[in-house]
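This week, work through this protein record:
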Amino acid sequence: MLATLWPVADASTAALMRALYQAHKVDHLDKADALRQAQLALLRGTVAADYAGNAARGLARAGTARASGNFKINPSAPYAHPFFWAPFILMGNWL
């Protein structure tokens, strides 16, 4: 089970989940390593959000969750702030 410690942003969480399942199912990493690789992908900017899925379903957001403080968003790694990748923890069987 993957849990969060605080509220999370939809787009970055979707990107993290895609990267996690890619690493676990395709690359055959265990769950802990897959989560680590997914978090690193967000940190390094090697994974991006797919907004087309929301548009295709007719969903719209009035606002988005943002990292707070003086953190400057890097366009090549928009989810590098720990707000986007750090709240996730594995519970239970990590294999």
In short: Confidence is low (pLDDT under 50) at residues 52-60. The CA atoms of residues 55 and 82 lie 27 Å apart.
